[in-house]
Specification:
Elements lengths: L5 H13 L3 H4 L5 E6 L9 E4 L16 E6 H7 L3 H19 L4 H7 L3
Parallel strand pairs: 1-3
Antiparallel strand pairs: 2-3
Helix pairs in contact: 1-4
């Protein structure tokens, strides 16, 4: 499908976050979710950068937030229509936030989120 405007894509990302259960949202700590057009070097749908919650020993103080980036152009290119794009955005957001919580790709694959 043709890329949708950034504002509409950001709304889809916000809807994906809002759809998460409160129990999951309460586990998120010092993480920001951002939208970018595409990764400069790799063909990625999303990217988590940071220190997973399960690896934070002396964490706390002046650390910058962990960052989840959702890439608009590849997600739009992979979707056939708006409904599929909405599903893929949700899967990407869940997948990357799961990394923030310390869940690896193998576990995500087993759970159907990879």
């Amino acid at each position: 499908m043709h890329p949708i405007p950034v504002e509409e894509f950001e709304q889809l990302v916000g809807e994906a976050i809002d759809s998460l259960p409160d129990e999951i949202l309460e586990l998120l700590d010092n993480v920001v979710v951002m939208v970018d057009d595409e990764h400069p070097e790799e063909d990625l749908l999303g990217l988590y950068e940071g220190v997973p919650r399960t690896e934070r020993d002396d964490y706390g103080g002046f650390e910058l937030p962990d960052r989840v980036t959702v890439f608009r152009l590849p997600l739009c290119a992979d979707a056939a229509d708006l409904a599929e794009l909405r599903r893929e955005v949700t899967v990407t957001v869940v997948h990357e936030l799961a990394h923030h919580l310390g869940i690896d790709d193998d576990t995500l694959h087993d759970l159907g989120w990879a």
